[in-house]
Design goal:
Elements (H helix, E strand, L loop, with lengths): L2 H7 L13 H11 L11 E7 H20 L7 H10 L2 E7 L9 H24 L3 E5 L6 H8 L4 E9 L13 H4 L5
Antiparallel strand pairs: 1-2, 2-4, 3-4
Helix pairs in contact: 1-5, 2-5, 3-4
Bound molecules: flavin mononucleotide.
Length: 187
């Protein structure tokens, strides 16, 4: 599949077939993810691959955390939907910033490393597309990052989750603003 076709075909997928993703496929997707460019070639991305019980535990940790938030009438956004997606997917990859908890970490470095991690996540999504897999990029983990990190005993900063599996839905393209609305051409 060429890149343009992968970009055009990709959708956020939230329903998955009950089918295992081969370990070598996951490993290859991670390898392709790390081919992303990164500011100063710092490669700030760190990954945790969750499958089976560990992945189900993630859904539980999130569910428990947002149940508590709800008791305090706090906003939990689309977290229930994201927990459902995590339960559905056979694989969830958590992505961390390996540097952002370091002392003296500067704002511009945060911006740079965050962009680098975004590039790696997008590579992961497009690589998955090429392997016939569906993905959903999930930031609802931000409702309970401390709970997730302490459960995994990780000191680095959680940036995103990506749910991965063979798709069990084929959604129509979601709307986009016109390029003309979001672009200024100057010469
Ligand atoms: C940074 C980022 C965070 C996202 N977080 C979530 C999320 O927490 N839960 C979810 O279901 N989808 C999430 N999405 C998916 C978006 O909802 C989706 O990309 C958008 O609606 C456009 O749909 P499409 O991906 O099918 O083109 C996220 C996407 C991005 C890029």
């Amino acid at each position: 599949m060429d890149v343009v076709a992968a970009i055009e075909a990709r959708r956020s997928i939230r329903a998955f077939q009950n089918k295992i993703v081969p370990q070598e496929t996951i490993a290859r997707m991670l390898e392709l993810s790390t081919k992303a460019p990164s500011g100063k070639n710092r490669q700030p991305w760190r990954f945790a691959v969750l499958q089976g019980n560990k992945k189900d535990e993630l859904a539980k940790v999130m569910h428990n955390a947002i149940t508590l938030l709800k008791q305090y009438n706090k906003d939990t956004g689309s977290c229930d939907l994201s927990i459902h997606t995590i339960r559905e997917a056979p694989v969830v990859i958590l992505i961390f910033n390996g540097f952002s908890k370091e002392k003296g970490y500067r704002h511009y470095t945060l911006l740079m490393d965050t962009q680098s991690i975004g590039a790696a996540v997008q590579n992961l999504l497009l690589a998955a597309q090429d392997f016939g897999l569906g993905t959903c990029w999930i930031c609802d983990v931000f409702y309970c990052p401390e709970e997730i990190c302490s459960w995994l005993n990780r000191q680095d900063e959680l940036m995103a989750a990506v749910a991965i599996g063979y798709p069990n839905e084929s959604p129509a393209p979601r709307s986009r603003r016109l390029v003309s609305e979001v672009t200024t051409w100057l010469d």
